[in-house]
Design brief:
2 copies of one chain form a homodimer. With about 160 residues, chain A is an alpha+beta fold. The first copy, chain A, is built from 6 helices and 5 strands; from the N terminus they run H-H-H-H-E-E-E-E-H-E-H. Chain A has a single domain, classed as Arc Repressor Mutant, subunit A, CATH 1.10.10. In chain A, the strands form 2 sheets. Chain A has a 3-stranded mixed β-sheet with strand order 4-3-5. A two-stranded antiparallel ribbon of chain A has the order 1-2. Chains A and B meet through strand 3, helix 5 and strand 5 of A and strand 3, helix 5 and strand 5 of B. Bound molecules: zinc ion (4 copies). The site of one zinc ion (ZN) has 6 residues of chain A, from loops. Chain B binds a DNA duplex (30 and 30 nucleotides) through helix 4.
DNA sequence: GTATTTTAGGTTATAGCATAACATAAGCCG
DNA sequence: CGGCTTATGTTATGCTATAACCTAAAATAC
């Protein structure tokens, strides 16, 4: 996993949005896909916070920014971002979050803080390997995974 | 994990329902909780199939059996079963499935076949350990997990 | 055994999440 | 430009889940 700041670390957050948008542009250019205004704004909305946002929450912010007000506007932009690995869906929350290291194709593993709602991704390989091994023992072939943990981040642990 | 038949194994399925109900009675008796008619019927509906059922699908079957027709009827029974470890919620499917080994308190790991919708639970400990390790490295304390894999079961792999 | 408290089941209503289907507009390419 | 493809917007609808209120049944207290 590249060296992106973790949601739980104190960091200069102003870079998160600009870097994220820049990386997205690079990735999409290679794939000859367009980062249109709605898509760009949607990604920016997600990048602004290290937590997952519901589609309707995103939609409200898009509407404020002058885009369409109907659900498909948000869902389509979110679907596009997820498809290209720029965002992930957090199933436990029925919500979406920007990916902090979209250049490496990966199945995400989420750590969700129930105290402050912060959301971080963590090392997927060992977890995925353990899951593959268990699945293999059952004769099952894994294609996609959702691996999510709910708990307390370092800061909220101290506060509690 | 006790010796219960796996959804992917060929097995005498007539035992699954009766054994499951018997185990539920035992567990609830110890906790002085009541397996009321709706709850019993709900569990039986889930036990009848080795797959996850949506709450409204359960509700329809409850209504057919003479119980109430409104969502809370199903949701309350399902919530009770989940609370006592007799069923699990599969977040990837927004659906519920009976647990095949409810006596051991466990966080489930699901294998969901996209071919036949069969759902099996598998060894959680190694996966959970890997996840705990990754979380610990980030200073995060895991309280609850959702670990789910989508793919192909042995039978559907052969068929494909 | 009846009164009191607690737990469960039933209803109506509404909130929250997601997609189908169709129309318009913008980019792309001969 | 003209025709094709992709993207945006709209209306309408469906699926998932819970709040709030009322009645009934069971457990417990007297
Ligand atoms: Zn940041
Ligand atoms: Zn990611
Ligand atoms: Zn069976
Ligand atoms: Zn289980």
């Amino acid at each position: 996993m590249p060296n992106q700041p973790n949601a739980f670390d104190t960091h200069d957050h102003s870079h998160c949005t600009t870097d994220g948008l820049a990386r997205a542009e690079g990735i999409l250019a290679l794939r000859k896909q367009r980062l249109t205004p709605v898509r760009r704004q949607t990604l920016q909305i997600l990048l602004a916070e290290h937590r997952a946002l519901g589609a309707y929450e995103v939609l409200d912010k898009l509407a404020e920014a002058g885009f369409g007000k109907q659900p498909p506007v948000a869902y389509r932009a979110l679907e596009f971002l997820v498809e290209h690995g720029l965002a992930h869906k957090v199933r436990r929350l029925n919500a979406f979050a920007a990916c902090m290291h979209p250049e490496t194709d990966h199945a995400p593993v989420f750590l969700i803080c129930r105290g402050c709602n912060a959301l971080a991704e963590t090392a997927a390989e060992p977890v995925r390997a353990a899951l593959d091994a268990a699945a293999h023992a059952a004769g099952f072939t894994v294609e996609r995974t959702s691996i999510e943990a709910l708990g307390l981040c370092p800061k909220c642990k101290v506060a509690a």
